[in-house]
Amino acid sequence: MASFLPQHLPDIPLPDPTSTSSLRTIHDFFLSSFYTQEKCTQLLDSYVRPTRNWGKGWDGNSFCNHQEKHVVEWNRTPFQVLTALFLFGEELSEDICASVLSPSIFELLVSHKFLKRKYVSCYSSHQIFPVTVGSRTALILTDWPFLDESLPSQFAVMPVGYDSLELTVISEVNVSSSNAGECSSICDMCCGSGIQGIHYLLQLVSRNQNLSSVKCKFVDYNPRALSLCEFNVAFNGLSSASCSFVKSDCWSDVDASADSKFDVILCNPPFVAIPESEEERLHYYADGGVDGNNAIKEIFKEVLPRLKPLTGVMLMVTELPNVSTSTSQVRRFLASEEGKIKIAYVKEDVETIEEYSAVRNDEMGFKTDAKKYAKGINKSEDIGVIIDRALVLIRVENVNSDDDEGLFEFSSGQDEDVEYEFGADEPDAFIGDAGRSFLAEVMK
């Protein structure tokens, strides 16, 4: 993988993770104001009225896409003010914030850098996304889908997208499976904000496992990601677990000793396919090279030796080209006949290379036309000609392969021509009830 981060990041202040008491006060205030995934989903549902209501679940981008619909006149309860500031990215007057949230909470949010003052207004430099974990809610602080102009895009830490939420679903499947057992070691590779490791730790808490016996290693090449991750661990009250934060280009600086093998590796790597001429334009968290597989190959190459034998599991969300051949691709990346591979994808999410290029070209703001973009990603040395791409969920077990492995297709029944108001992303199929049930059956 290319290494192009400078030694010093721009000075973007992050909330102080060492102020445990204050962080707990702020966290409790969010939850007492009903800042939960369910409540926030209901709020966005009131703005988005698809002609077919087929699933519930929205990512961080969807809230920002509806910023203008979250009208200021509604900012009269703590829940409305918190969602305006930390989910939709609105700028509000200090008077509204102090009067609705209370002067003490408002000053706490400012002093701990959750909010910035701007003349007589205030705003948040970060999005805070609520994720349900059993009876608990994790609050995940990330960079915004739209960026502060003083933060170059390659330093940005990934907001909570549908890919992140899909990976939490199969991690729930893994924890709830009968053979999951006690977990003592977790690796969140390409951790970003730390959502996957934090989500997994909270699942263990919901199973009454004592976290003092659990080690969780968060790995990322971006130092800013590790800072955000460390904060999120503290913000969610998980300091009792033995967490470490490692700057590493994939596995290069991760301890490979025999006593450092993992029960679970969670991974949401950079996977966006992009022509070589445009690589410098992408956020670091998204750049996967011409075929999208740059980081994926490096991670899979060492994953089996990093897992505990017989019981170790890797769970990954990524894109793969030529989805019908994805199991053979992963087998080739593993460079071993060992390991059982399962891959699941949504039928309606498979895009031709032309469709994929048009979407990515537009969302990334490239100046090149979509046809030129497609020509730049339609073949690679490893794959050959590339005809389509899809988001997939991958499970690799460190056991001998058997007939139970394979490629599993889920049809959501979603009409691809449905139009969603105000630029919303479509709901994700694997986050809805039918998709969850499918994954529970085939990915355990």
Automatic annotation (TrEMBL):
It comes from the Eukaryota. InterPro entries: DNA_methylase_N6_adenine_CS (IPR002052), Euk-Arch_PrmC-MTase (IPR052190), SAM-dependent_MTases_sf (IPR029063), Small_mtfrase_dom (IPR007848). One of its GO terms (molecular function) is nucleic acid binding. SUPFAM superfamilies: S-adenosyl-L-methionine-dependent methyltransferases. Pfam families: MTS. Keywords: Methyltransferase, S-adenosyl-L-methionine, Transferase. CDD domains: AdoMet_MTases. PANTHER family: METHYLTRANSFERASE N6AMT1. This is Methyltransferase small domain-containing protein.
